[in-house]
UniProtKB/TrEMBL annotation:
Pfam families: DUF3307. It comes from the Bacteria. Keywords: Membrane, Transmembrane, Transmembrane helix. This is DUF3307 domain-containing protein. The keyword Glycoprotein does not apply. The chain crosses the membrane at residues 35-52, 86-106, 118-140, 171-191, 211-230.
Length: 231
């Protein structure tokens, strides 16, 4: 498949064969960096090698040219604050170009969008991300600990870490249920208990412990219930 061949070329060219020193030079000098053009040349050559068909030379040139345009836009518009965002935009655009080429050659069949089983699983997975987080937040709103309470102990935490931990744990629990590996759910509960509740025990805050426990049970409960309904 052209899609797989071009993805392999992309992974090699963008990650394995691109040293950090090249990336740093491109970010500093942007379009003046010689490594930008060397990177595009390598990427185009890899695409041609993996395609292994000289009649498809235009595909390699197209992916190389689009790669240059996308990388040039990222280097021109990104800054320290938007660097992470531009990395994902860059990668998504590269994959979309490859997908577009593959679609041109008829490699993609969009009939799966009419598959009811696929749509049900997709719907459940989407529900377990942000919608479930909002449901849990609303359910816990009356018990949310006040950060200004007299007995409150401040602990450092990554921004929005709890939200993303909840999303990941629900998706993992849902996946375990869909593949009939319920023991994985038990592993997730045990793992979270070890890491999370040991910290809460040290904090010696009963209300906070109960709050986190209710949130955890709601999170796992929603994932389990959603998995059972879909099954």
């Amino acid at each position: 498949m052209i899609f797989i061949q071009l993805i392999l070329a992309h992974l090699l060219g963008d990650f394995i064969l691109q040293p950090d020193s090249w990336v740093a030079d491109k970010e500093n000098r942007r379009l003046k960096s010689k490594f930008l053009y060397l990177h595009i040349l390598i990427h185009t050559a890899l695409s041609l090698i993996f395609l292994w068909n000289l009649t498809l030379w235009w595909v390699a040139v197209l992916t190389g040219a689009s790669h240059f345009i996308i990388d040039a836009a990222k280097l021109t518009f990104q800054n320290i604050k938007t660097k992470k965002r531009w990395f994902f935009i860059d990668q998504v655009l590269h994959v979309l170009v490859i997908a577009g080429v593959s679609f041109y050659f008829g490699e993609f069949d969009l009939s799966f969008l009419k598959n009811q089983e696929f749509l049900k699983i997709l719907m459940a997975a989407l529900f377990l991300t942000m919608p479930a987080s909002i449901f849990i937040k609303i359910l816990l709103s009356s018990w949310t600990p006040s950060p200004d309470g007299p007995n409150n102990i401040q602990t450092e935490s990554l921004t929005s870490a709890g939200k993303y931990i909840g999303i990941l744990e629900r998706l993992l629990v849902f996946t375990f249920i869909m593949v009939d590996h319920w023991e994985g759910v038990g592993f997730m509960v045990a793992a979270k208990s070890v890491f999370r509740f040991s910290d809460l025990a040290q904090a010696k805050q009963r209300k906070l412990t109960e709050y986190v426990l209710i949130g955890t049970l709601l999170s796992f409960g929603l994932a389990v219930l959603t998995g059972i309904i879909i099954k």
